[in-house]
UniProtKB/TrEMBL annotation:
<dbReference type="InterPro" id="IPR027417">
    <property type="entry name" value="P-loop_NTPase"/>
</dbReference>
<dbReference type="InterPro" id="IPR000863">
    <property type="entry name" value="Sulfotransferase_dom"/>
</dbReference>
<dbReference type="Pfam" id="PF00685">
    <property type="entry name" value="Sulfotransfer_1"/>
</dbReference>
<feature type="domain" description="Sulfotransferase">
    <location>
        <begin position="42"/>
        <end position="280"/>
    </location>
</feature>
<protein>
    <recommendedName>
        <fullName>Sulfotransferase domain-containing protein</fullName>
    </recommendedName>
</protein>
<dbReference type="GO" id="GO:0008146">
    <property type="term" value="F:sulfotransferase activity"/>
</dbReference>
<comment type="similarity">
    <text>Belongs to the sulfotransferase 1 family.</text>
</comment>
<keyword id="KW-0808">Transferase</keyword>
C-alpha cells in the first residue's frame, strides 16, 4: 500500500510525527519531552487507541466533573497531550481532563507519581479499523487515498500513526499488571452503547463525583451519538476534511465492520486476533 506516505508507524525513539499535529513546532522534541512535564493531583487522563470513543468519554467525563455547562465548548483535540504545547498544557484550568493515544511510558512520569486517575477506553478492533480507515482517508493532512483492503493489512501490521491496536492493548494490560493498585478504570465502547446509564454511574463512582440519577440520565441523553454529532459538527474544523464535512462523528455503531470486512477478511482477522491476544484478559465484544 504505497499511498498515504504521511501515515507512518509510531516510532517515538527514532523520529515521529503525527500528521494532524505537524503544525506544532518541534513536534518530535515536544513528544520526547513529555515525560518531564508536571501533573496536578486531580488530573484525569483518558487513554485509548484512536477511534475507540475518546471524544465521547471525554465529553461524559467533563460533564460529570464540571457540570453540564461544560458541554460542547471544545473539541477533544484541544486537550490531547501530544498535540499541546507545554505552555498550554500548564495553563489548562483545573480540574484537567486530558486525552492521549500515546503509550503510557511516553507520558509525564508525574502522573504515575501522583497516582492520577486514568480512564482507559477500549473498542473492538474491527470497528476501530473501519473508523480509522475513514479517518485516514477523509482527513486532508494524511494525503491518503488507499483502498480498504490494503489499508486493513496496514492497520493489522500497525503501520499507522500510533502503531498497532494489538501492541497498544497488550501494553496497557502489562501496565495494569505491573501496578495493580494504580487507579485505572476500564470502559468498553460496546458497554457504553449497551447501557450508558450503568457505565456512566460506574464512571462517576470511580471519579468520586456525587451526581444523582437525574443528572446521570441527562449526561447519557446529551451524549447520545446523534445529539453529539449535531452539536459537535458545528465546532469541528470542517476544512480538515476532504469533502468539507466534519467526519469525526461518523456512524457511532457497534458492528459496522460487517459492512466492510468480507467473510475471509474477518476470518483472517480472527486468527490474528486469537494469536496476538492469546495471553490477554480483555473482554472484547465484536457485536452486542
Ligand atoms: P465511527 O467512525 O465508527 O462512527 P475517537 O473519539 O476515539 O476518535 O472515536 C471516534 C469514534 O467514536 C467514531 O466511530 C465516532 O463516531 C464514535 N463516537 C463519537 N461520539 C460518539 C457517541 N456519542 N456515541 C457513540 N459513538 C460515538
Amino acid at each position: 500500500d504505497k499511498s498515504g506516505a504521511t501515515i507512518t508507524a509510531l516510532d517515538i525513539d527514532n523520529g515521529y510525527i503525527i500528521p494532524t499535529f505537524k503544525a506544532l513546532e518541534n513536534h518530535e522534541q515536544h513528544v520526547l519531552s513529555m515525560p518531564t512535564w508536571n501533573a496536578e493531583n486531580d488530573d484525569i487522563l483518558i487513554c485509548a487507541y484512536p477511534k475507540s470513543g475518546t471524544h465521547w468519554l471525554w465529553e461524559v467525563t467533563c460533564m460529570l466533573l464540571k457540570g453540564k455547562a461544560e458541554r460542547i465548548k471544545r473539541v477533544k483535540e484541544d486537550v490531547m497531550i501530544e498535540g499541546m504545547t507545554k505552555d498550554r498544557y500548564e495553563k489548562e484550568p483545573v480540574p484537567r481532563v486530558f486525552n492521549t493515544h500515546i503509550l503510557f511510558k511516553y507520558l509525564p512520569e508525574d502522573f504515575r507519581k501522583k497516582r492520577c486517575k486514568i480512564l482507559y477506553v477500549l473498542r473492538n478492533p474491527k470497528d476501530v479499523a473501519v473508523s480509522y480507515y475513514n479517518h485516514h482517508s477523509k482527513i486532508r493532512e494524511y494525503e491518503y487515498d488507499g483502498k480498504w483492503e490494503p489499508y486493513l493489512d496496514r492497520y493489522i501490521e500497525g503501520n499507522v500513526d500510533y502503531g498497532s491496536w494489538f501492541d497498544y492493548t497488550v501494553d496497557w494490560e502489562r501496565v495494569m499488571k505491573e501496578d495493580p493498585e494504580y487507579p485505572v478504570h476500564m470502559m468498553y465502547y460496546e458497554d457504553m452503547k449497551e447501557n450508558g446509564m450503568r457505565e456512566i454511574q460506574r464512571l462517576a463512582k470511580f471519579l468520586e463525583v456525587d451526581r444523582d440519577e437525574k443528572f446521570i440520565r441527562e449526561v447519557d441523553e446529551l451524549c447520545q451519538f446523534d445529539r453529539m454529532k449535531k452539536d459537535k459538527d458545528k465546532i469541528e474544523n470542517a476544512d480538515e476534511w476532504k469533502n468539507g464535512q466534519p467526519g469525526m462523528y461518523r456512524k457511532g455503531q457497534v458492528g459496522d465492520w460487517k459492512n466492510w470486512f468480507t467473510v475471509s477478511q474477518s476470518e483472517k482477522f480472527d486468527v490474528i486476533y486469537d494469536e496476538k491476544m492469546k495471553n490477554s484478559n480483555v473482554k472484547i465484544r465484536f457485536t452486542i
